[in-house]
Amino acid sequence: RKEVEQDPGPFNVPEGATVAFNCTYSNSASQSFFWYRQDCRKEPKLLMSVYSSGNEDGRFTAQLNRASQYISLLIRDSKLSDSATYLCVVRSTGFQKLVFGTGTRLLVSP
Amino acid sequence: GAVVSQHPSWVICKSGTSVKIECRSLDFQATTMFWYRQFPKQSLMLMATSNEGSKATYEQGVEKDKFLINHASLTLSTLTVTSAHPEDSSFYICSARDQGGDEKLFFGSGTQLSVL
User: Fold this and answer.
1) Closest CA to B34 of B89, B102, B105
2) Nearest C-alpha of chain A: how many angstroms from B44?
3) Dist CA B44 CA A10 (whole Å)
4) Residue A102 in contact with partner chain B when CB distance is under 8 A
5) Strand, coil or helix: B82
């Protein structure tokens, strides 16, 4: 079983739609969680950290369920510019390295 | 914000040659840098952790004699792919952590290596 699992997609949605991505992680000792965005052949860029209480940044909402070892990202009012691959990233306590999911590809169409 | 510069961004080489990729932290010191590899439609896979002034720590399955890492200063780490073969063709990305910063990592722009 992969340490971080995501549905690879692609998710094809029209502009203005709401879309949600899910991610599960296998290491219960994981302490830090992030969503990164990666455009084709570019470096990943931090979208937002994920906190136990859930957090929101504009159109983006991230939630963490430690009991189910599950992370989600919700994008409201999708824009064409949101088209990218969204990477779920996890880090365990005491380790500096991050473990990346395979990413979920989002395609927003006019 | 913090910037990590990675060079070159694209390299094409013949099989059997060696390729060096540089990763520099431009406005902060990084005692630790990370090297990742990403094959098409796959996730970033950590290859090794580069430690300034000491030997790199390689992940399981990564050949340390093939992927030479040197972290001689607090702002520069290099990855050398020795005797490159077509199967080494991939997207290589470095990241660095600000020594005095938070848990965020800053990524280089990546190097697309194509071995003919």
Assistant:
1) B105
2) 6
3) 18
4) yes
5) coil
